[in-house]
Amino acid sequence: MTDTKEASEKVVRDFLGSWEGRSLEAICSGFADDAVYHNVPVEPINGIAGIRAVFQGFLDAFSDAKLDIVRLAAEPGLVLAERIDYFTMNDGRKVELPVTGVFEVENGKITRFSDYFDLADFESQSGLKL
C-alpha cells in the first residue's frame, strides 16, 4: 500500500475525530501493532497494548473529548497537526490544551505519534499526572 499525502492525512483525521465517539476500538484502529506514542514531556509508550492502556486511562478520566485541528500539513507518510484539545473531566472541569502532533504513517497505519504540549498546563488543568 502506498501512503499518499491524502491517505496519510485521512488516517490522522480519522484518529483525531474518533475521540468524540469514545470507542477505544475506533481510537486504536489506526495504529500499527508496534507503534510508538510519545507525549514528549514524558517517556514514550511502545506497542499497541501500552497505547490502548493509556488511551483507556484518558477515556476513564474524561467524560468528553474533542481534538480540534487548527492547522494540518501532510506529505506521504507524515502529518503535522496543530490542535486545541478540549476535555471535560468526570467532575465537570474543562481542559483546553494547545497541542502539536507529529504522526508517521506506514502502510495505512500510524507507526509513531508524538504530541508536543505544556505538561504543567495539562496537569494543572486536569489534575492528572502523566
Offer a few descriptive terms.
130 residues, alpha+beta, Nuclear Transport Factor 2, Chain: A, 4 helices, globular, 6-stranded mixed sheet
Helix count, DSSP H or I runs of 4 or more residues: 4
The general outline is globular
Low-confidence stretches: none
Reported CATH architecture = Roll
Strand content: 35-45%
Query: In order across it, which strands form the biggest sheet?
Result: 2-1-6-5-4-3
Distance between the termini: 35 Å
Radius of gyration from CA coordinates: 14 Å
Care to count the β-strands? Answer: 6
Assign the CATH topology.
Nuclear Transport Factor 2, Chain: A
Domain Limonene-1,2-epoxide hydrolase: 9-123
Keywords: Hydrolase
Pfam families: LEH (PF07858)
Protein name: Limonene-1,2-epoxide hydrolase
